[in-house]
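[agent] plan:
  1. take the single chain provided in the ticket
  2. run structure prediction with default settings
  3. attach structure tokens to the ticket
  4. add a short note for the reviewer (M.T.)
[agent] executing step 1
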Amino acid sequence: MDSVRHLIVGAGVSGLATAAALTDPDYLVLEADREIGGYCKTIVRDGFVWDYSGHFFHFKRPEIEQWLRDRMPGQRIRTVDKKSFIAYGGRWLDFPFQKNIHQLPQDEFIECLHDLYFARAPGQPPAKEGNFKEMLYARFGRGIAEKFLIPYNEKLYATDLATLDRDAMGRFFPHADLTDIVRNMKVADNASYNATFTYPEGGAIEYVRALASAVDPAKIVLGERLVGIDLRARVARTDRREIRFDKLVSSAPFDKLARMTGLAHDPSVFTWNKVLVFNLGFDKKGPKNVHWVYYPNRARSFYRLGFYDNIFDTDRLSLYVELGYPKDAVVDDAVIAAAKARVLEDLRAEGVIDTHALVADHHVVMDPAYVHITQGSLAEHARLSRILRANGVFSIGRYGGWTYCSIEDNIVEARALAADFAV
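[agent] step 2 finished; step 3 output follows
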């Protein structure tokens, strides 16, 4: 039987960042796919550079960004002030919606401002915030909630927001109070956690390659899938062999990890949605000075567009288009073909394209895409994680942690875990 002190499952950002941070050279990285990167893969086709989905990198820690940049020699990297808009009522409003209601038609602006004020009027008892939907109503009022926050997030999560925890998006949700909103009417301040982003000309895979450059390539095994874990014996079973470990670090979806360990648990608390991503390349330029557009309109198939061509100012429209589906939805070839035709119709209806000809395209189904953070998932994840850690198994990353986080957060978490191992 093979043996290793640190067995790392997954060669995406979390797994590679863990391996790169380990001081102990006795490690092995297993990846079921034939390539490293996880969801940070990049496709180059007919002169277009696309990712599996929109990975605009946002860094709060300059030292991490610099560490990555230092490992991308010769790569042109652009830092961009993100320009985000909301398509609403035939116009584009500045993002976030709740801080720019003054850009609405007068009657809708008055409605939103009225509902916002009386949602938290002085002397009024606080409204219930038991779930994500109730939080939106309680903090922003009916107008803002129903015009944007609820329809957009229901399209993104492909679920009833009342099933989600009130803090399902954590620090990534753009909160604003009445003072912020009124001040923004005169002095615009639409800053958010991702107001600026960096992006390499070679796509998101360049960040993955930067992480991999600090990992011994002989210790990355591709095309080998973990299928089971004996916690008591600390033995991992793959589709090829058995490997004894001291510590196992997994970035696999937590529900799958729980099944592989055989631990008794409630699988029903772990829900998520799928996202169908279309990468589309056209023969000529489209809208300029825009990177993201959000679509709360339920009549449109997509919830968000991202504009690759406006990062490096290329001369042909290059988009990623995101459509949300429930986790049990069938997204087969027939569904994808129909969705692509519908997307092109919707892009024309929204004025994003007119006489443009589609010259290249790619699609991928991300499953899971966004995990659903609920009271049940939080409790079961915490309970199972305690048992796993006691047996040398550590589950990290967006899917391993069953959380909403950034790619930088994954690197920080991986480094912290590696530091704990060194103590």
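[agent] step 4 note for reviewer: The domain at 2-77+199-269+374-422 is CATH 3.40.50.720 (Rossmann fold).
[agent] ticket updated
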